[in-house]
Design goal:
- This protein has four helices and six strands, in the order H-E-H-H-H-E-E-E-E-E.
- The protein is α+β, with helices and mostly antiparallel strands.
- Strands 1, 2, 3, 4, 5 and 6 form a six-stranded antiparallel beta sheet that branches.
- A hairpin with a 5-residue loop joins strand 5 and strand 6.
- The radius of gyration is 19 Å and the shape is elongated.
Length: 188
């Protein structure tokens, strides 16, 4: 857009870049990596890789035992949803810390959200008993963009997952478009 340099909303968002998203400390997994949750995941996705559930086959592999599907990384530190008041939180399944770019964009009228992409990076496979924590940092916020779905800002954050010893086990980059729903489908 031609007015990127005169965008007071974007200027106000700069303070969030490089800062934690979602509170002061890391998010602790409510439970350790466990076989019942692995079973639910592989059943839901119809993933029949035997290293996820068959102890005897998994023991004979390079893993030496059962491992969790790598794509489950995010699930281990997800908090339990708070359903009461979900509409008041903009549809979020958990409480939202008020001082963050998502809330700031909501307050500026960019209330619609579209997840655009996610990239996962795995350092090691997780095993039953691993207890994870995650820390999420805002990586970037774009200048205001006009997209096919509406006018808004791309917000990107990176979540780093660590085991109980503090070793990084994986990372997830996640990007959303926060856009003004009144601009949906606008062509000019």
């Amino acid at each position: 857009m031609s007015d990127e340099h005169a965008d007071p909303i974007r200027a106000g968002l700069e303070r969030f870049v490089g800062k934690r998203l979602g509170g002061a400390g890391p998010s602790l997994a409510p439970d350790p990596v466990n076989v019942p949750m692995i079973r639910h995941w592989v059943d839901a996705l119809d993933d029949r890789n035997p290293v996820y559930l068959d102890e005897s086959i998994a023991a004979a592999t390079r893993f030496g035992g059962i491992v969790a599907p790598p794509a489950m990384l995010q699930t281990w530190t997800m908090g339990r949803p708070v359903l009461e008041g979900i509409a008041e939180r903009g549809g979020s399944p958990s409480e939202i810390v008020s001082d963050n770019p998502i809330t700031a964009l909501d307050e500026a009228g960019y209330t619609a959200t579209l997840a655009t992409n996610s990239e996962l990076d795995f350092e090691r496979y997780l095993r039953p008993g691993d207890r994870l924590e995650s820390t999420t940092v805002v990586e970037s916020i774009s200048a205001r963009k006009k997209t096919g779905i509406g006018v808004g800002y791309f917000v990107t954050w990176v979540t780093t997952y660590r085991d109980a010893d503090g070793a990084v086990v994986g990372r997830q980059l996640f990007r959303i478009l926060k856009f003004d729903p009144s601009t949906y489908g606008a062509t000019s």
